[in-house]
């Protein structure tokens, strides 16, 4: 794989230098990727292509820092600043993988798309799969970037709000200006839609690092939910679940294990993990730097199996996250069926279909319930709601319980505050309390200064 990666770098240099004369090969030792297997290896590079940004997770409200000593012990100044929503997030830090990793993945995807042009070394079926795979990778990473470095999608302002540079070519020297938020989402949706038509519909078991048609639908559901287009979010969540709707009965999992799941957990649709550059605040191991927010823990019923399966107590008496849907200490941030059940439930509730909404809500909760948790048999009783507001509130609370530490909470906060929910974040570190106001400009992370200096693109304003 390392040799092939070096060859890929040489390929890119060759492509840039030769223009359309791709038959020129100045060094006979360079092997140009042409076959399905060649490009499969590029897209199977999980060291770069299956990551999600870290900063949204450490900027959200799912954890607390026990003391100023713990906060000061954080190795990264970026982690310290992001945890308290400082105006200057990086303070000179240069290795901002939340920006560079998604663009590396996009770079690989764009090169595969380039290699597929006029390629007679792959069959039509192989071409469709590889193109769909590359487009999915590009869409997934564009969405990661716009969710981190741009404002939430607002139909009233999206045409003017600053989005991300939409890098659509393999030319490494091309400088692309920032598109609008509207254009950024248009590109994400276009790539995801085309990939949904090209990829095989069903998941390849044992290879969930690879996308499928159901993964493309799940991505579209997540994207449309963040745009508050609840009708389309429901449409694509339904399409995904019509193909793959498996839920794990948590009663079958080992509650005391630090690794109750596998890499190819049954609910996983597409595997991605948080970059974990700031591991003291995101790692799924019993470290002492952070604890799960006590208010979040209080949302779980005593009979909710996730209290034991998702969390473990550390030596300070606080709780840390376990390895959910993965064996890695890098938290899972991919696409899974539990998220789709909740997207359907929320969208149906907002549309006034309370019976159907609560069906999806209860179907998920039933698989998380331990009737003997309290020592007295407590059967799960289907919950109901009588108003749209009540149903939506119940489902949003369940999103907090179900999708903990997946990097999703940050996007939820941005979209929900646009609906005037007035969610004000606070972080107390000893006697000092820091706040993040609803719809603050600090919900948009700054672009790394190195990128600004090299490309000249416009920086985000944080006040």
Automatic annotation (TrEMBL):
Homology family: Belongs to the SusD family.
Location of the protein in the cell: Cell outer membrane
SUPFAM superfamilies (alphabetical): TPR-like
Domain RagB/SusD residues, every copy: 339-460
Keyword Glycoprotein listed: no
The keyword Signal belongs to this UniProt entry's keyword annotation: yes
Pfam families, per the entry: SusD-like_3, SusD_RagB
Matches recorded under PROSITE patterns: PROKAR_LIPOPROTEIN (PS51257), TPR (PS50005)
Domain SusD-like N-terminal: 22-225
Organism: Sphingobacterium tabacisoli
Record-given protein name: RagB/SusD family nutrient uptake outer membrane protein
Residue spans of the TPR repeats: 214-247
Domain of life: Bacteria
Keywords: Cell outer membrane, Membrane, Signal, TPR repeat
């Amino acid at each position: 794989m390392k040799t092939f990666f070096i060859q890929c770098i040489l390929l890119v240099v060759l492509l840039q230098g030769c223009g359309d004369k791709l038959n020129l090969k100045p060094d006979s030792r360079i092997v140009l990727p042409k076959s399905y297997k060649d490009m499969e290896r590029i897209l199977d590079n999980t060291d770069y292509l299956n990551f999600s940004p870290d900063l949204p997770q450490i900027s959200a409200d799912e954890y607390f820092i026990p003391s100023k000593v713990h906060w000061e012990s954080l190795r990264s100044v970026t982690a310290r600043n992001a945890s308290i929503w400082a105006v200057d997030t990086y303070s000179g830090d240069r290795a901002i993988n939340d920006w560079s990793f998604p663009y590396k993945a996009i770079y690989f995807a764009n090169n595969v798309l380039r290699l597929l042009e006029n390629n007679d070394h792959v069959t039509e079926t192989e071409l469709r799969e590889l193109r769909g795979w590359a487009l999915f990778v590009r869409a997934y990473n564009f969405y990661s970037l716009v969710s981190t470095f741009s404002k939430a999608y607002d139909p009233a302002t999206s045409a003017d709000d600053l989005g991300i540079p939409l890098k659509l070519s393999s030319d490494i020297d091309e400088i692309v200006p920032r598109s609008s938020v509207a254009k950024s989402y248009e590109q994400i949706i276009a790539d995801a839609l085309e990939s949904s038509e090209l990829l095989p519909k069903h998941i390849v078991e044992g290879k969930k690092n690879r996308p499928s048609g159901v993964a493309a639908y799940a991505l579209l559901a997540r994207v449309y939910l963040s745009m508050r287009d609840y009708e389309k979010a429901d449409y694509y969540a339904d399409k995904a679940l019509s193909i793959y709707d498996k839920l794990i009965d948590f009663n079958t999992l080992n509650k005391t294990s630090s690794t109750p799941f596998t890499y190819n957990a049954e609910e996983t649709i597409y595997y991605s993990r948080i970059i974990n550059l700031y591991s003291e605040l995101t790692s799924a191991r019993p470290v002492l730097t952070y604890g799960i927010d006590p208010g979040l823990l209080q949302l779980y019923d005593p009979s909710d199996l996730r209290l034991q399966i998702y969390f473990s107590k550390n030596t300070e008496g606080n709780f840390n996250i376990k390895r959910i849907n993965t064996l890695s200490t890098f938290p899972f941030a991919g696409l899974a069926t539990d998220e789709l059940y909740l997207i359907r439930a929320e969208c149906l509730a907002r549309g006034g279909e309370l019976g159907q909404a609560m069906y999806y809500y209860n179907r998920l909760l039933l698989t998380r319930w331990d009737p003997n948790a309290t020592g007295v048999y407590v059967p799960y009783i289907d919950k109901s709601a009588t108003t749209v507001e009540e149903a939506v509130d119940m489902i949003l609370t369940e999103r907090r319980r179900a999708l903990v530490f997946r990097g999703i909470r940050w996007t939820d906060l941005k979209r929900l505050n646009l609906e005037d929910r007035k969610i004000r974040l606070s972080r107390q570190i000893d006697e000092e309390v820091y706040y993040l106001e609803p719809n603050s400009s600090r919900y948009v992370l700054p672009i790394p200064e190195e990128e600004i200096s090299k490309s000249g693109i416009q920086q985000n304003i944080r006040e």
